[in-house]
Design a protein that fits this description.
It is built from nine helices and no strands. The relative contact order is 0.10.
Length: 208
Amino acid sequence: MTLLRTIALAALAVAWIVAAHLGSAGLADPDLSAAIALAPAAAAVPLLLWRAGRRAVAAAGTLCLIGLIAAVWPVLRGNVALLYFLQHLGINLALAALFGRSLLAGREPLISRISRMAHRGAMTEARARYTRGVTVAWTAFFLASAVLSAALFLFAPPAVWSVFANVLTGPLIAIAYLAEYAVRCRMLPPEDRTPFADAVRAYRASLQ
């Protein structure tokens, strides 16, 4: 069952990348492309409202959202690339803020917190220093991605921006993680390294 779910999620991710690239580059039907671009936000807002517990408010909010989308649909379908750009920019800025905010005075860096939770509260000085550096690196990575995305969107052809934002974003994050893992193996002893699966479980626990 887990394998089937993984395959389904991978297929969905590939379909999203293809649809986002074609829509951003102006190579697909604008109505379909706009609908796909809006789908995550259009689904998330009603879900959050329903989870708030007040059904009347949730129903009213959902109807207002549907009405708003219908009212501005001609504008949305005419600016498909802008929709995908705002999503890409917003996600990168939000991630940069998530990592960067944890570096403020009096707070524990995000990667340090995840590592500490994965090691059941234990934290060595070497691991604390290293994980703070990794938090800084991820902050810089997402900020750089946001800046490059904005520059390409403003000054490059839509297809060029789309390749970077829709096609290369995932591989670039994977490459950055693998590079960090290689550095981790050189900088930290085995007992101080946090396996990926343990880090994911610790991050989920930190959200809860």
